[in-house]
Design a protein that fits this description.
Layout (H helix, E strand, L loop, with lengths): L2 H14 L4 H8 L3 H8 L7 H11 L3 H6 L5 H53 L5 H28 L2 E3 L6 E2 L3 H6 L2 E2 L2 E5 L6 E7 L8
Antiparallel strand pairs: 1-2, 1-5, 3-4, 4-5
Length: about 210
């Protein structure tokens, strides 16, 4: 979405209603500084006040997100464009999440291994007693398991898995992700569409590309 274009549109609509930034802000219960940020394209209206803002300006949400009054002839085209933009934004967010998953996974592994090495060395060297070594190991296990849990959660919600048999792309349950045999991001799971099990790869897009 073009925030600068949307900002200019908000300013135009506000002026048509003969309102200052301060008057619009008072109606919405916010500061005029927030309105100024919208109109200069530095920020977007919060979703919680978007409908109220549209009501005050005499426009609809589609007009607001398009940065212009959308005619009925262009309505479907604009809606399709907005949906494609939202899909693209989700794909980019999913890619960032999957990168974060790798980082969390590596850090969790380090947090798990380092205390074990330290405890083993200190025990062999007679520096600490065995029960203290066990405490050191557990001190690394707990945060590591928490990290692994969040990494698995990201693995579940970011992107989709594609069935090898029917090509269906879906978001599996956390239980399926946890207990499925896997090699990297490829997991052996049952497809909810065709009911067959296969080694399914992680993909970013919901639909297959025509390219």
């Amino acid at each position: 979405m073009d925030q600068v274009k949307i900002g200019k549109f908000i300013a135009e609509c506000r002026k048509k209603e003969n309102m200052t930034q301060m008057q619009l802000a008072e109606k919405l219960g916010i500061t005029d500084r927030a309105v100024s940020k919208w109109e200069t394209g530095r920020a977007m209206p919060d979703s919680s006040i978007m409908l109220e803002l549209c009501g005050i300006l005499g426009i609809n949400v589609n007009d607001l997100l398009s940065g212009e009054v959308v005619t009925m002839e262009n309505y479907n085209k604009e809606m399709e464009k907005k949906l494609l933009e939202l899909i693209k934004e989700k794909e980019q967010a999913d890619k960032r999440l999957l990168t974060l998953e790798w980082i969390i996974g590596i850090l969790s592994l380090i947090i798990m291994i380092v205390p074990c090495i330290v405890a083993s060395y200190c025990t062999d060297a007679g520096i600490i007693e065995e029960w203290k070594a066990v405490l050191i190991i557990f001190s690394g296990m707990i945060p590591a398991l928490v990290g692994i849990f969040f990494a698995m959660k990201i693995e579940q919600v970011a992107g989709y898995y594609e069935c090898k048999h029917c090509g269906h792309r879906y978001v599996p349950t956390f239980k399926a992700i946890t207990f499925a045999p896997h090699m990297g991001r490829t997991r052996h799971m049952k497809c909810p569409e065709c009911g067959k099990k296969s080694w399914q790869k992680k993909v970013i897009s919901k639909e297959k590309s025509d390219l």
